[in-house]
Amino acid sequence: MTMIQTKPRGACRALRLSALACALSAATALSPRTALAGPIPWKAGHFQYVADHKDLKEVLRDLGASENIVTWISPQVDGTVTGRFDESPQRFLERMSDSFGFIWYYDGSVLRVSGPNEAKSATIGLQHASAEDLRRAFKRLGIADPRFPVLYDDDTGTAIVSGPPRMVELATDVAHLIDRSVERADEPEIRTFPLHYAWATDRTLTINGQSVAVPGVATVLRSMYPNSTIGSVSGQQAPRADAYKMRSLDPSGGAYRPSGNTNSMPTLPGLFGGDASERRTAQNPPLPASYSPGGGAPAPGLPSDAQTAEGAPAGSTARAVDPVIQPDPRNNAILIRARADAMPAFEKLIASLDRKPGVVEIDASIIEISETGLKELGIDWRLHSSHFDLETGNGQAAQAGFPGSVNPQGFNNPNDTTTAGMLATPQGAVLTAVIGGAGRYLLSRISALEQKDNARITASPKVATLDNIEAVMDNKQTFYVPVQGYQSGDLYSVSAGVSLRVLPSIIDGQPTPQIRLDVHIEDGQLTNQQVGQLPVVSNSTIDTQALIDEGQSLLIAGYSVDQDDSSTSGVPGLSKIPIIGGLFKFKHHQGQKFQRLFLLTPRIVSAAPPQPSQGTL
After folding, report:
1. Of the candidates 616, 614, 611, 617, which has an alpha carbon nearest to the alpha carbon of residue 346?
2. Which stretches does the entry tag as region Disordered (predicted)?
3. Residue 38: inside a domain, yes or no?
């Protein structure tokens, strides 16, 4: 049988119980006492104790000593205990608290017992952190106790803490630390991010003959962070510099937002006295009585750059620190002024943009084949695949062998008895297995035609370029035409020739990567026709795209080029005599028609490193 007797010393215990009840009922409604935020780590499951008119402080000290728990007892805790107890330590502590009215709180290391008159209440106002931040911190640290619930107001960033002195003290200290840490996080810092492969500033490239502005990393970052301040080298100002900032016209505190066009407009000069640039806040007339801020659908708000702190939630800074992004052209780096907690996101995003590009080598061959050569090429065909070789001919031209084939020297012609040491093309067709490449075989046949002056390789440029960067190969003739003006003259250039522009893009694939080619070809020449005293330029243009495997070639053909050369020479004076002057003249005319072929062979010199797995930036 368990019995407890309490003997208060005078009427003070009744007064203390009354004060405790008044303090707790005024501050908060008590939750069930068995619910604990951080339970006391009791060692024993049962606590047996016998007291005979023993002081309450001594009883509580014995409880803490038996469980090896440090106990602090306020001098205001008073009472006498008599009885025999056999129950759990937690139940014994709650029984003593119910009987004598003291309040206890375990902060993780010390069990603190306070008198009923020592209960405290504090109102915590947050300037930088939010009430949700404080709520999460209390939960993680185990400060909150369901017996003494904390009241939060998210709109004003306020928390009311009532309970034991130690709990209120811890809650206040933690709130100050959190608010200060958020304030430090809001304080801007400046960091430099050097770039290794990408460009910090915008660049102008010529693509397909047109000037194209390629945005740099700074411009890309500004587009990802629309509230960032434009810190370009040209000194442009942010758009929000001329935006209206409208004060609240709603007595309840809500900010009025017009329903019309929300584009920013400059203030009228001298409307409110003084320079308009010094008065960015526009005073507005009172709203009509029929206006109800809470009724109906909300009106569209002002642009984010024009909102003021009145429209921001309390407890947080309005537009805390907008990032300032500035390129450094001299060092090819990015300067960022932003909050400290935003820097890791910037660093990760910049690292994903500053990736090592791949390098592609483009081997181009510009080939001209005459009509007779083309006819001969049309007779002597040799078709290669991975499993067979088919060759036809008229038995006159030499065979075009391929070093990588199973029969690199070609076939013997049984009908040819005169050319013992030369392998000629067969009369008819011969089939065998061979492994070869179409691009190399085509070049070997053209070399044979070039020896007969029927074909020629006019140019074989080779250039290396970065992935997704256009390579330009020009072979043009330019002359300048003087043009006289009213007060000055100028020279205008006229160009004709071959211009080859190739934009390669590496596409990762299995088992081998592929290369996408964006090809633009311009082929022009001066004609004998004239307009005034200027020759007419004939231009041909080819635009195409292709996706080929590495090691393959792209052959572009299909249009012819006419060459017509004529010249006249003669004896001065005699060649101009009528009738007999023709005896002293020499006229030369040479005309030829060529088929022009373009053979492009891209090769990956170095591929870009694999893209890392993307996470949340």
Report:
1. 617
2. 246-326
3. yes
DSSP collapsed to 3 states, 31-71: CCCCCCCCCCCCCCCCEEEEEEEEEHHHHHHHHHHHCCCEE
543 and 602 belong to one structural domain: yes
Q: Residue 69's domain is classified under what CATH number?
A: 3.55.50.30
β-bridge partners, 398: 424
100, part of any domain: yes
Local structure of 577: helix, strand or coil: coil
| pTM of the model as a whole | 0.47
Q: What domain range is 326 assigned to? A: 187-240+305-356
Q: Of 158, 156, 164, whose CA–CA distance to 123 is shortest?
A: 158
pLDDT value at position 412?
A: 55
One domain, residues 216 and 338? yes
Instruction: Map tokens 């001066």 to a residue.
Output: 526
Shared domain for 203 and 180, answered yes or no, is no
Task: Count up the domains in the chain and report the number.
Answer: 5
Residue 518 near residue 527, CB atoms below 8 Å: no
How far is residue 475's CA from residue 220's CA, in Å, rounded to a whole number? 36
CA distance 44 to 106: 17
Instruction: Provide the pLDDT for residue 328.
Output: 92
In angstroms, the CA 531 to CA 326 distance is: 53
Average confidence score pLDDT of the chain: 70
Confidence of residue 568 (pLDDT cuts 50, 70, 90): confident
| Residue 496 φ/ψ region, left for φ over 0, alpha for ψ in the -120 to 50 degree band, beta for the rest | beta
Per-residue pLDDT at 327: 93
Closest CA to 103 of 37, 17, 174: 17
Range in 73-87, 234-248, 378-392 with the lowest mean pLDDT: 234-248
Strands 245-246 and 281-282: parallel
366-404 per-residue burial string, b: 16 or more CB within 10 A, e: under 16 = bbbbbeebbebbeebebebeeeebebebeeebebbbbee
